[in-house]
Write a structure and sequence with these properties.
Elements lengths: L2 H22 L1 H7 L6 H20 L4 H23 L5 H24 L7 E10 L3 H9 L11 E6 L4 E7 L4 E12 L3 E6 L7 E9 L6 E10 H5 L3 H5 L3 H18 L18 H6 L1
Antiparallel strand pairs: 1-7, 2-3, 3-4, 4-5, 5-6, 6-7
Length: about 290
């Protein structure tokens, strides 16, 4: 179930549309809420809505922007409430606007809580490792998402449909799950962030940073992931995540380090795990 992502994106588009209307036609918005004044304030609110909408559509994590919308909703309620205190003119429109705002505020608060990292909906995990390769090489290898199965043990395959969209297959011999993912933010050679798309049965988001190491030597790779409760309940991911997701990410980063520094993953028996193609990491980067 990925309805939370769908709602967040819907609220993002709603914010963009409302913000544009408040910027372009503040007097019309003022009449709708029962006030002919405060057009400058309405334009400011419009900028706020546009910022919140852009954040919901572009950010890897929706919860902070949903909380920002919630705070803005409270300001809107206070502003419309002032119309009721200032006389009977426009009172009916103000009451209708307050009722509408109350519904939107409740929706924002509900999904902000559901998608917050400290709520029931999401679990946060992070890990980092030093890799003896330049940041640009580490970035290029990971950013070519079809390389990810070479170091993430539970990823069976990744197929990129364009520069930002990809299809993922994960699991073991016992079970397989699939989802679609999109790149939502990117700084070339340094960082990119992703999240699953609307309609996916599994939902998660994350980011990976490639920072120059001490004295400019090597790379510090930092991986952050937020994944939904349902992600943990699905096999085989549940076995891998368990109760220590940070340890799982650390293990995968160690595999990434081995691939970047030696060209292959070494198993616990001391033998190369093998990647099917026999290509070195330099071959992968050159593609």
């Amino acid at each position: 179930m990925a309805s939370e992502h769908a709602v967040a994106r819907g609220l993002g588009w709603f914010s963009l549309g409302l913000g544009a209307a408040e910027l372009v036609a503040p007097r019309t918005i003022a009449r709708i809420v029962g006030s002919r004044n405060h057009t400058k304030l309405i334009r400011i609110f419009g900028l706020r809505e546009i910022a919140a909408g852009a954040g919901l559509l572009a950010a890897a994590r929706s919860a902070p922007w949903l909380w920002a919308r919630f705070a803005g909703d409270l300001l809107d309620i206070a502003s419309v409430g002032s119309v009721l205190r200032n006389g009977k003119k426009g009172r009916g429109k103000a009451i209708f606007s307050l009722a509408s705002l109350a519904g939107v505020t409740a929706l924002d608060a509900y999904y902000a809580k559901r998608m917050s990292g400290n709520g029931r909906m999401w679990t946060h995990a992070e890990a980092s490792i030093a890799v003896d390769r330049p940041p640009e090489e580490c970035y290029r290898f990971w950013r070519n998402l079809e390389n990810v199965p070479s170091f993430m043990s539970y990823i069976k395959s990744v197929q990129t449909t364009d520069d930002r969209l990809s299809h993922w297959v994960a699991g073991t011999d016992g079970a397989v799950i699939e989802w679609n993912s999109e790149i939502v933010r990117e700084t070339p050679d340094r960082r990119f962030a992703w999240r699953t798309t609307s309609g996916s049965d599994v939902w998660h988001s994350g980011s990976v940073d490639f920072e120059p190491g001490p004295a400019g030597r090597g790379t510090i790779v930092r991986l952050h992931m937020d994944y939904g409760k349902a992600f943990r309940s699905l096999q085989p991911i549940a076995k891998l995540i368990g109760k220590a997701p940070d340890q799982v990410l650390s293990k995968e980063l160690r595999r990434f380090k081995q691939v970047m520094e030696t060209g292959e993953v070494i198993t616990t028996e001391g033998q190369p795990a093998g990647r099917g193609s026999g290509a070195t990491w330099l071959d992968k980067i050159a593609r």
